[in-house]
Write a structure and sequence with these properties.
Pfam families: YccV-like
InterPro entries: Clp_protease_adapter_ClpF, Hemimethylated_DNA-bd_dom, Hemimethylated_DNA-bd_sf
Largest sheet: 5 strands, antiparallel
Signal peptide: 1-21
Shape: rod-shaped
Number of helices: 6
Number of strands: 7
Structural class: alpha+beta
Strand content: 5-15%
Radius of gyration: 43 Å
Organism: Grus americana (Whooping crane)
Keywords: Signal
Strand order of the largest sheet: 4-3-2-1-5
Length: 233
């Protein structure tokens, strides 16, 4: 059975206080004792009738219970709607972010797809230091793709119609030695534009330790996570 709230308690107090108040008034303003008795009796009957209808009636309590359940259902439904909307919104947002991240990391030799077996036509390996044949900057290879994997807009901008066939050749991701002052920290270039530099150990780049643990005299030693992606380099 629902509990009596503050408003109901106040109503009971008013009803209970009405009897002595009315009796007091009748003492001062009644014409005679018979009239006062009649007034008092009517007051008692009216007060008791009102009280029984409000608090001793099963129908009244049933109505209160229905109202309480109705409000509870409304609150519950609103809460569920808010929860569903929140889950939908953040779920959609997370999915979109996840899709964008997956798409971004599949470009420019950043995919974590294991490169095994390694095709024989891939000339260079991760960890080798190379120089650009045209621009002269050097750096270290940190990844490769069997053919260019980049947004179509980027490919169209990089390769003129006469060089579109380069998109189907191996491409390498390079950490550029910052001392070259080239203005970029990384590059994604086709195989035909680079060549190996032997005996050049020092490549200065803030991400070197993330990719490599040291230098063995001929190339940089890959970190374990990178070696798993390029097991044959």
């Amino acid at each position: 059975m629902p509990h009596i709230n503050a408003a109901a308690a106040l109503q009971i107090c008013v009803l209970l206080s009405a009897l002595p108040a009315q009796y007091f008034i009748s003492q001062w303003y009644g014409t005679d004792s018979a009239q006062r008795i009649q007034i008092t009796e009517r007051l008692i009957i009216a007060s008791w009738s009102s009280f029984t209808k409000s608090y001793l009636s099963l129908d009244a309590w049933a109505d209160r219970l229905k109202l309480w359940l109705s409000k509870t259902r409304i609150c519950l439904n609103v809460g569920l709607l808010i929860l569903h909307f929140r889950n939908w919104y953040y779920g959609e947002k997370k999915t979109k972010i996840g899709d964008n991240e997956a798409e971004t990391h599949s470009y420019f030799a950043e995919s974590t797809h294991i490169r095994s077996p390694k095709p024989e036509y891939i000339q260079f390996s991760v960890g080798q230091v190379v120089v650009h044949k045209i621009f002269g900057y050097w750096g270290v290879i940190v990844g490769w793709d069997v053919k260019a994997k980049a947004p179509e807009e980027w490919l169209q901008d990089k390769y003129s119609p006469a060089k579109q066939d380069l998109k189907d050749t191996p491409h390498y991701r390079i950490l550029i030695n910052k001392a070259n002052g080239f203005g970029k920290s990384t590059a994604y270039i086709p195989e035909e534009e680079i060549t190996i530099i032997m005996g050049l150990e020092v490549v200065q780049h803030p991400d070197m330790k993330a990719y490599f643990s040291g230098y063995d005299g001929s190339k940089y030693i890959m970190q374990p996570w990178l070696k798993k992606i390029y097991p044959h380099d």
